[in-house]
Amino acid sequence: MENLPNCPKCNSEYTYEDGVMLVCPECGYEWNPNMEEAAEGLVVKDANGNILKDGDSVTIIKDLKVKGASSPIKQGTKVKNIKLVEGDHNIDCKIDGFGAMSLKSEFVKKI
C-alpha cells in the first residue's frame, strides 16, 4: 500500500487517490499534490486576477449593501491589512465606519 500524505486540513491519515487528486473521507477536502498552489495553501484572487496575500490593501470596486446598515460601502473605499479565510466571503477586514467585515474577493482590487 502506498504511503499517502495526511490531509492538510484535518490531518486525517485515511486519504485516498481519485485520479490525480487526493481526497480526505473525513472532511471532504480534495487537493492535487502535484500543484505548487496546493503547497502554498489558500489562493485568493481579486477581480482583476491578481493573487491576494494576508496584509494586502484593496479597494472596493462597487457599492456593497450591508445588512443592518443604513448606508452601503461605497466604491473606492480603501481597506488595509486584509486577512484571507476559506469560504464564500474569503476576506476578513476592518472598514472605517463599518467595523469588522467579511468580503468576497470578486468585489475588490489590489492596490
Automatic annotation (TrEMBL):
Residues 4-32 form the Protein YjdM N-terminal domain. The keyword Transmembrane does not apply. GO terms for molecular function: hydrolase activity. Residues 44-110 form the Protein YjdM C-terminal domain. InterPro entries: YjdM, YjdM_C, YjdM_N. Pfam families: YjdM, Zn_Ribbon_YjdM. SUPFAM superfamilies: Prokaryotic SH3-related domain, Zinc beta-ribbon. It comes from the Bacteria. Keywords: Hydrolase. Coiled coil: none annotated. Belongs to the YjdM family. This is Protein YjdM.
